[in-house]
């Protein structure tokens, strides 16, 4: 593949910025303060496109799960830290997992930023002309066709900003008129149903309404599969610009959320939430919303099939290769993506560095997982670790690392020595997603052929208080396996950050079908499509072979779907919102019995991990990166021992993020979310 590292000069081509970390958006207020009035902005091609580009600023950067989640504009993946999906050892980030936010300290609120761009979008739609200039004009030219495309993009982004608010806060005010910067136009909150219908109506305009001809179907420009990964098959200059595929996907997700318990009668305290005029904001349960979600998912699938889209498979269809390449190249599974990705800044910066063990040159090694997540991965037999008789946590095995990068000088996969059996015989997604104790790197350090990631006491992967694997694991899922900060190895790699992909929606579809009719064969079909690509037996195969049969049992199927989503979508920005819409965000294990407390009442959430204060190796080389003599000890006094790493407070109010206090102070009509007052 050719490396793609382009520079965004203006936000008008930011969505155009191919796999970069560009954030060069125009500050429109600065432009207007330079004696530009609205008429001049919307009659000049340069200023109009810059105004348009600003509206993309709220598109999330969910790739950021490390130190930069301190960013307070609500676009980074701090939710992964709040929810325990991800743990970052840096104290400035670790504190966010303690869930100490209140209405007056909403560090990651997106309210103000989304409403800023909603206003920006509304002004654009009201003022943008049919076209600007003539072809070849020195002052710039925007044709009628391109202006319609701009307007369709903005309508989509308007819908998306409202959705970003909805998934985080529940229903929020719908703005119906453009107020001046200093005007205080007050709005009450819409109801859930009103907000869903408003977003749906905006999407309808670009899917089959007055702007249905303005969006391209997809960004694909060629036929067939792009196995050469030379980017000739896709218009990556417009990776972030909305398409019909993105609009259909957002609409489907919207209705899945609307049908889910949090927004559909399941949150008891929300059912009594009213505006000051007595209007209820959250509806009673309505089973028909699952049918609406199903309809929109099927519309998306029909569109995807017609456009040659499907789950990504590598050319050799090897599951290890397929699930790695999925995140390294643009492909036909992607429905919408961003080129702005904090893994794209090279091996010594941001997320690539934060997920590289600390003793590899440039590595900071502090973004990883708790044991709670590790235990969710299936075995290679497609079973829960507690169901598979082949799984055990006794002893050690020499284990081939399937992530080894083969080359002219490396002909075979590296065999890692003395790997704890907990990590042996797990599914391909486990090896693709996780760096665990003793795992080799995809390219071994020069001069250290037996290097391993040693997070335990004495190991060099523990760099300092801010740079270590807090629970004994690092995130590996998105790392590029050609990179190494040594010699002539590549040092950076451009890749997309995926917002919507088909596997995500296949699992939505299984979930929706299960809530409508547990006997629907599509439930198992669509879960099994995801499992097949992941290289593990599907539930149909398990049932046919007499291993495990969940088919037709609504509760068991629901558990299977939820778990598959957590594993398949891990680290992509879905976990927090899924756990909340399912109303499982407050579930936790009893610290002493291990039993699950399956409610959202106030409690402490327990996060487990390996005991990094204890050794797993008795003798290292003088750098601490190669084991000379291993310890066979397991359990108390050993690294290989599940311990409580963190205890975090949970309050039921956290099912919905609080409306920021300063926003409440501005409005006499806006009411706070349940239990925050």
TrEMBL record:
- Cite the RagB/SusD domain residue spans from the record: 333-676
* Segment forming the signal sequence: 1-16
User: Which residue intervals define the domain SusD-like N-terminal in the entry?
Assistant: 24-200
Which Gene Ontology CC terms are recorded? cell outer membrane
InterPro entries attached here? SusD-like_N (IPR033985), SusD_RagB_dom (IPR012944), TPR-like_helical_dom_sf (IPR011990)
User: Where found, per UniProt?
Assistant: Cell outer membrane
Q: What UniProt keywords apply to this chain's record, in alphabetical order?
A: Cell outer membrane, Membrane, Signal
**Record family assignment:** Belongs to the SusD family.
Identification of the protein by name = RagB/SusD family nutrient uptake outer membrane protein
Taxonomy-wise, where does this protein's organism fall, top ranks first?
A: Bacteria, Pseudomonadati, Bacteroidota, Bacteroidia, Bacteroidales
């Amino acid at each position: 593949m050719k490396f793609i590292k382009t520079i965004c000069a203006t936000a008008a081509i930011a969505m155009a910025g191919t796999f970069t970390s560009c954030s060069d958006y125009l500050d429109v207020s600065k432009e207007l303060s330079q004696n530009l009035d609205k008429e001049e902005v919307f009659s000049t091609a340069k200023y109009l496109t810059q105004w348009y580009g600003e509206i993309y600023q709220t598109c999330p950067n969910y790739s950021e799960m490390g130190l930069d989640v301190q960013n307070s504009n609500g676009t980074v993946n701090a939710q992964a830290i709040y929810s325990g999906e991800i743990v970052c050892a840096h104290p400035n980030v670790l504190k966010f997992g303690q869930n100490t936010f209140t209405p007056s300290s909403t560090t990651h609120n997106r309210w103000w930023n989304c409403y800023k761009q909603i206003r920006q979008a509304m002004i654009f739609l009201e003022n943008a002309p049919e076209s600007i200039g003539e072809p070849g004009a020195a002052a710039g030219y925007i044709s009628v066709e391109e202006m319609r495309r701009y307007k369709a993009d903005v309508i989509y982004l308007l819908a998306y900003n409202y959705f970003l608010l909805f998934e985080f806060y529940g229903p929020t005010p719908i703005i119906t008129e453009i107020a001046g910067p200093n005007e205080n136009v007050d709005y009450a909150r819409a109801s859930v149903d009103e907000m869903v219908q408003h977003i749906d109506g905006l999407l309808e305009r670009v899917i089959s309404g007055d702007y249905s001809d303005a969006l391209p179907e997809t960004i694909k420009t060629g036929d067939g599969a792009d196995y050469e990964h030379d980017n000739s098959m896709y218009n990556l200059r417009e990776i972030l610009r909305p398409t019909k595929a993105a609009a259909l996907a957002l609409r489907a997700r919207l209705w899945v959320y609307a049908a889910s318990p949090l927004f559909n009668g399941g949150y008891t305290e929300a059912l009594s939430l009213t505006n000051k005029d007595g209007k209820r904001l959250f509806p009673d349960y309505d089973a028909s919303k699952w049918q609406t979600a199903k309809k929109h998912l099927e519309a998306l699938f029909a569109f995807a099939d017609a456009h040659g889209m499907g789950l990504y498979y590598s050319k050799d269809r090897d599951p290890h290769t397929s699930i790695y390449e999925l995140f390294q190249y643009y492909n036909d599974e992607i429905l919408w993506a961003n080129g702005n990705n904090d893994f794209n800044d090279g091996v010594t910066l941001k997320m690539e560095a934060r997920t590289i063990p600390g003793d590899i040159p440039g590595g900071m090694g502090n973004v990883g997982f708790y044991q709670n997540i590790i235990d969710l991965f299936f075995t290679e037999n497609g079973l829960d670790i507690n169901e598979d008789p082949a799984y055990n946590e006794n002893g050690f095995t020499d284990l081939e690392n399937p992530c080894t990068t083969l080359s002219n000088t490396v002909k075979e996969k590296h065999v890692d020595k003395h790997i704890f059996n907990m990590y042996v015989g797990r599914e391909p997604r486990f090896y693709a997603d996780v760096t665990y104790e003793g795992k080799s790197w995809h390219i071994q350090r020069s001069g250290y052929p037996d290097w391993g990631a040693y997070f335990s006491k004495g190991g060099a992967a523990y760099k300092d208080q801010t740079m270590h694997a807090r629970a004994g694991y690092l995130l590996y899922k998105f790392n590029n396996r050609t990179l190494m900060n040594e010699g002539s190895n590549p040092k950076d790699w451009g890749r997309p950050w995926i917002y919507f992909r088909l596997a995500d929606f296949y699992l939505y579809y299984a979930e929706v079908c299960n809530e409508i009719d547990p006997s629907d064969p599509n439930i198992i079909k669509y879960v099994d499509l995801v499992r097949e690509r992941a290289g593990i037996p599907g539930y149909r195969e398990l049932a046919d072979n007499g291993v495990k049969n969940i088919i037709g049992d609504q509760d068991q199927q629901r558990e299977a779907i939820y778990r598959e989503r957590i594993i398949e979508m891990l680290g992509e920005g879905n976990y927090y919102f899924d756990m909340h819409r399912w109303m499982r965000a407050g579930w936790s294990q009893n610290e002493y019995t291990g039993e699950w407390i399956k409610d959202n009442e106030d409690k402490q959430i327990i996060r487990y991990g390996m005991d990094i204060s204890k050794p797993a190796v008795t003798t290292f080389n003088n750098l601490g990166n190669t084991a000379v003599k291993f310890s066979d000890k397991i359990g108390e006094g050993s690294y290989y021992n599940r311990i409580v790493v963190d205890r975090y407070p949970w309050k039921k109010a956290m099912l919905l993020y609080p409306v920021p206090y300063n926003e409440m102070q501005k409005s006499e009509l806006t009411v706070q979310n349940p239990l925050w007052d």
